[in-house]
Amino acid sequence: MTQITKNILCFGDSNTWGLNPETGKRYDENTRWTMLLNQQLGSEYKVIEAGQPNRTLVNNPPFSGNLNGISYLKPYLEQYEVSTIVIALGTNDLKKRFNLAPVNIASGLASLITSIKHFYVDGKLPNIVLFGPLFINPQHALSNIYFNCHQKLQPLNAHFKRIAQEHVLNYVDISHLNAPFGCDGIHLNYQGHKQLCERLNRVISKL
Fold it and tell me: Model's pTM, two decimal places?
């Protein structure tokens, strides 16, 4: 009997892509959480990496092309038959230049979820796993780029959790995750990737 592979689409920003804050390059396949997850879940699953630095829920970052989440998710859904979609976005929307309140960022997330449901209106909706926001602690020059983000994280987490409940999604609250950051206070170090993988692995295994 042929084994059917379950595709897991991990759709996020630079922490999903695997940016190493110490080098500015990408972590290898034995370090970033998406590939660690692929290794731990085994041959029954295939993790599709769809991380993109600077990706947002609401705006298209200037000088970075069209990186808005909704615009880039549909091609993945058209290309792959997925059993689970993992969404890990919201950090880049906290940047000072966007001047977004938590409710505005949450509205972008709600639009993304609604778009996914519309895409599958005539088919089987995949499991959707939503990560809460990472409680970042921007350092040095990034503290100005993310000015006042600390005041937005708790309410943003509450909004994300509410959206997950309203849409009956699997919510992974990582506000209390003891995930170590690198030198910039935004991107996870190798231990953080390991912790994130372990948390998600437990969720995926129960689906």
Answer: 0.93
